[in-house]
Amino acid sequence: MALWRRKLFEPFELYSRAARQGLESRNPVVVIPGVMGSRLSHPSTGHCYWGGQKAGFAKQDVGDEARLICHPVVPGKGLWEVEPMLRPDGVLRSLELRFGGIKMCMSTYAPILKMLGVGGYLDPLQKLGKKDLDYGAQAIGTCFEFPYDWRVSLDQNAAHLSDFIDTVREFVAEERGDNEDVKVDIVTHSMGGLLLRYYLRYGGEILRPDGSAPPLTWAGAAATDHAIFCGTPNAGSMNAIKVMLEGLKASPATPTYDAAVLGTLPAIYQLMPRVRHAPAVLSTTGDVFDGLYDPDAWVEYGWGLGSKNAYERLKILLPEESSPQARRKHGIEHLTKCLDRAKAFHKSIDSATDIQGDVSVYLFAGDRYPTPRQVMMTPHDTRLKVVDTGPGDKVVLRSSALMDEREGVDYPRLLSPLSWTGVTFLSGDHMGLTRDRAFVNSALWYLLEKPRGNGIEG
């Protein structure tokens, strides 16, 4: 066969030489998934209540299971003072479910993990010899999954991420047999990017009890060499508003969870868009809705935990409380804490400050599909109507990924509090971005072949 007619080159051919680098010449990689991208299991029984095989999900109408999958509603305590019972138990690679009698395998984070396998990165606990993952005996201990509890506030998860990365750095330094300062490369998808943004700025310090940010130290940036963001809703996503009002509908990959269940999860509020970007208008007036983070508005209009429909759900979540009035009071208190924490979290990561240190920050974002830009909200109605769309990945707008602040500003160049080293636009949908050839090749270039320093030695 003529050379010009050979098959197309695949990533394992392009990066096989670079993949055989030993641990001494490349950084360990930490993979952070998006919302609902980590399994949640009971630490005592090992039973999986989110992300288990064969529809292993907690049922919202079974009292004990509902209380496990929801964030605890504890009156009088801050969100950071309450720890859910379930623990993160690995990153979702795929979900094997039965839907209408048909066996289905829903791909989740397998594409990213396979990409790193193609690049020679392996979980240190994996055995060599698996197809497409065996790149030599030196290619072990270089890829680490960071599963996290995607229900709790992201600043709390940043504290766990900081401890995790410190452990990784110590492990790699010991494997190398020297005291050289080890830096990590981090690959994130969706919500994982918000967690990473906070970690880069504040390391493992959580928000203070009054909601103010800790000192800006860039401690996370000091430990990071490359940070790769893929499909991150840096300015929020309309999908967060949708599920907070309408709930999560049953699908081949997920069960049904109503708005009251999701309304207990602090991190979901942190996915909502910023009011300054005019994400919603009221049907009654046509004006921009400025009460998105106002608990009084949620109560007045009967949304989420502010809805009277939350009565029965709160009865399951608070079985020790016999009074409907008390249960409603506790639900509104929890709603208020979640909204306040979301505002504080956004403020902590949105301030325009130049990154300190040598970390390189790359963004991959979708720009092909019509994506909700603005919705119409109706008091006492949980249904949303999309009234405007923009380019994105169906879930995250291009402008949100960029954190574009040009709304109402006559300026041709990007205005953003985030300083990107490089930006690549892709044509896939939200989950498809991780399978896009441009993402795979570019990410592997940054992780494996991009020169360090001036790129020339000797």
Describe this entry's structure for a reader.
With 458 residues, this protein is α/β, with parallel strands linked by helices. The protein has one domain. It is 31% helix and 18% strand. It contains 14 helices and 14 strands. The chain has a six-stranded parallel sheet with strand order 7-1-8-9-11-14, sandwiched between helices. Strands 3-2-4 form a three-stranded antiparallel sheet, with helices on one face. Strands 10-12-13 form a three-stranded mixed sheet, with helices on one face. α1 (11-19) runs parallel beside α14 and α11 (310-317) packs across α12. The protein is globular, with a radius of gyration of 22 Å. The chain starts with 10 loop residues before the first helix and ends in a 9-residue tail after the last helix.
